[in-house]
Amino acid sequence: MDADFLFSLPVLALLGVVAAGTYFQTVTGFGLGMIVMGVASGLGLAPVPALAALVSLLSLANCLVALPGALHHLDWRAIRAASIGLLPAMAAGVLLLGYLDQAYAPLLKLLLGAAIVYGGVSILLQAPPGPGAADKRSFFISGVCGGLFSGLFSLAGPPLVYQFYRQEMSLTTIRYSLIFLFAISAGGRSLMAGSQGQLDAKVLLLCALALPVGVLATMAGKRYPPPIAQRGMRRIAFAVLTAIGISLMAAAVPQLFRP
Q1: Do 86 and 184 meet the contact criterion of CB atoms below 8 Å apart?
Q2: What is the DSSP string of 53-70?
Q3: Which residue from 216, 142, 217 is spatially nearest to 185, judged by alpha carbons?
Q4: Is 72 helix (H, G, I), strand (E, B) or coil?
Q5: Which residues have C-beta within 8 Å of that of residue 75, sequence separation ≥ 6?
Q6: Can you tell me where the transmembrane regions are (predicted)?
Q7: Which distant-in-sequence residues (6+ apart) come within 8 Å of 48 by Cβ?
Q8: Residue 170, class by beta-carbon neighbours within 10 Å (0-12 exposed, 13-18 middle, 19+ buried)?
Q9: Domains of the chain, residue spans
């Protein structure tokens, strides 16, 4: 890999997407995976498995920077219940990704587009508050769904975000509990992806380039939150992700029926 690769337009564009995604996740508690996977795959900057592996490593780094000093905000009861469902489902998702990428690439693109649209809608919609504290089963189910999304596309966010934003918790507790779960998901997925051979030299090099960008964006998000209401940021993310998800699905459908 020479300087032409390091300073190529796709790599520079990917670094810009990483900066936007990590900043957004730092100020909201979610969004890194959906933004990077959605924008980068929509622009064809890298294959889906490589992007998913990259997002896992970046998400883990983002969480490790964002969490220090915030552990007392976590809801451990909810985290434990969600983690029990998340980890085995995440492992199943990684195995399924390897199979679909080799045998059904158009179907994989269609599923990714649908997941991104779902993620965009879940960002925009305000989840209705639940009647008091939810039981452990609902957190377990959201963990299973988030784990499957994480294994396939490194997108654990949508099911977990919807579940946590329905709870009678402070926004600080919700945000840091989500970031902690994303750290568990990203760490476990990175180990699984490495065992499946998905962390090749190119992915590791991209990660080495993107990590400093992500760390700086995380620090900027903690120190300089945007003067935009969270609702406004949700609308922007919804518009971008929905458009990208629909375009991915539209491109995948003809390929599914191509002889």
Answers
A1: yes
A2: HHHHHHHHHHHHHH-TT-
A3: 142
A4: helix
A5: 167, 169, 173, 177
A6: 78-100, 107-127, 139-162, 174-191, 203-224, 236-257
A7: 37, 41, 97, 101, 108, 109, 112, 153
A8: exposed
A9: 3-256
Q: Which residue has the tokens 């490589």?
A: 50
Q: What is the CA radius of gyration of the chain?
A: 17
Please, what is the angle between helix 32-42 and helix 105-124, to 10°? Answer: 130
Q: Which amino acid is at 149?
A: F
Nearest to 32 by CA among 174, 210, 247, 195: 210
Contact in structure between 248 and 112 (CB atoms under 8 Å): yes
- Average pLDDT value over all residues in the chain: 83
Which structure tokens are listed for 220?
A: 């900027």
In tens, the pLDDT along 84-141 reads 999 999 999 988 887 887 667 788 888 888 888 887 787 777 655 555 556 788 899 9
User: Distance of CA 179 to CAs 25, 29, 66, 156, Å?
Assistant: 9, 6, 8, 11
CA–CA separation, 88 vs 226, rounded Å? Answer: 37
